[in-house]
Write a structure and sequence with these properties.
The protein is α/β, with parallel strands linked by helices. It has helices at about 10-20, 35-60, 75-85, 100-120, 120-145, 155-165, 180-190, 200-205, 225-235, 250-255, 265-280, 280-290, and strands at about 25, 65, 95, 150, 175-180, 195, 215-220, 240-245, 260-265, 295-305, 320-325, 330, 345-350, 365. β4 (about 150), α6 and β5 form a beta-alpha-beta unit. It is elongated and about 110 Å long.
Length: about 375
């Protein structure tokens, strides 16, 4: 994990903090009520139980005996309810009739238990929270399969996962890994599961269940970190598709050697888009439209359908940009394409229609 060194900070404390931060998994959860509101609700509930008990006792006041004057009035009923619910029990007012004693057994006693649960409810919540959270984590790990792991939840990582989710990926199938607790809090607030820790460490990636992931997006701030993450992720998962972003183009080959299937050079890509916009603002707008999935024009990879077999790319209904044949990506006008085959895949430009979903075997292609 990379840290900013602060004057006077103890190295041992930093190492201990690193150890703690790599063992934190956060799952999305509902918004918790403010403590003041929780306390106010418990006070109101306790008062309601107290009022109900006092009214029940007063309704059958003839069945009770007060040692001081023999009768039980409205004030005595409140007094009896208070000392009974608080389990003080002075014994100066006692039920003497059968009806009053049955009421104490089947009504007052349950109300006493309920009153105590309300008073110690906050303590019970604290005691059960760890067990509940551990159960959620175990259930989450056991059901998580073929998910997407996002390393780094900055601008690049957030935009990448929003693009993928816009095409049908459920948020429950996304796990975000980032060394910043505040960033993970933001991710969980958006509905994603998060792991706080250094993604270059295998134990952190294991907590994100990388070994069971289908695809991994690496969008770290530093290129050297991206290389280490790719090496670690590829060691844990040989079959996952790894896509990474780097700032410097010269680091792209190194990242591919580290195990990344595709590498996007963010700095040069942004620079080329800026240059294109200078030369032709309209062309820049079209490229910007292609980058934003779900509106305007989208780049989509899809398989060749049976009716297209034997045709040229120009004869298809969609606007074909490239043909993927085996491990080669061929331009639509490449003579090597010839006629389309059933095993080919097409990269096409389609118009995005809000409210419609992409075909199950089609994949949007981010350009940035």
């Amino acid at each position: 994990m990379f840290h900013v060194k602060l004057p006077g900070q103890d190295a041992i404390a930093r190492q201990a903090d690193e150890h703690l931060v790599t063992h934190r998994v956060k799952l999305p959860r509902k918004t918790v009520e403010r403590p003041i509101r929780q306390v106010a609700k418990r006070v109101v509930m306790a008062l309601l139980v107290l009022v109900a008990t006092a009214l029940i006792v007063y309704a059958d006041h003839d069945g009770y005996n007060d040692n001081s004057d023999g009768s039980v009035d409205f004030l005595d009923a409140w007094y009896y309810a208070t000392v009974s619910l608080s389990t003080t029990g002075y014994g100066d007012i006692t039920p003497v009739s059968d009806a009053a004693r049955l009421t104490n057994i089947f009504v007052i006693t349950p109300l006493r238990v309920l009153f105590l649960i309300i008073l110690v409810g906050t303590t019970l919540e604290v005691l059960t929270e760890r067990t509940r959270e551990e159960w959620r984590l175990n259930r989450w790990r056991s059901t998580l399969r073929d998910h997407t792991v996002v390393i780094g939840f900055g601008t690049k990582g957030r935009s990448a996962i929003q693009t993928v989710c816009a095409q049908g990926l459920k948020k429950e199938q996304v796990v975000v890994v980032d060394p910043s607790g505040k960033v993970i809090d933001a991710a969980t607030a958006d509905g994603y599961a998060g792991v706080v820790g250094d993604a270059t460490r295998s134990d952190v990636l294991k907590r994100a269940e990388v070994h069971k992931a289908r695809q991994i997006i690496i969008s770290t701030q530093r290129d050297d970190t991206a290389v280490l993450v790719a090496l670690t992720a590829r060691q844990l998962n040989r079959g996952a598709k790894i896509v990474a972003a780097v700032r410097e183009e010269e680091n792209a080959p190194l990242l591919k050697q580290s195990g990344a299937d595709a590498v996007i050079t963010s700095a040069s890509a942004a620079g080329r888009l800026l240059g294109l916009s200078v030369l032709s603002p309209s062309a820049g707008m079209v490229m910007e439209d292609l980058i934003h999935q779900g509106s305007g024009l989208d780049l989509v990879e899809r398989p060749v359908i049976k009716s297209e077999v034997g045709k040229s790319p120009r004869e298809t209904e969609d606007l074909v940009v490239s043909v993927i044949r085996g491990h080669r990506v061929l331009g639509y006008d490449d003579p090597a394409v010839g006629r389309l085959e059933l095993t080919d895949r097409l990269i096409t430009i389609v118009r995005a229609t809000p409210g419609t979903q992409v075909a199950p075997d089609a994949r949007p292609l981010p350009l940035d």
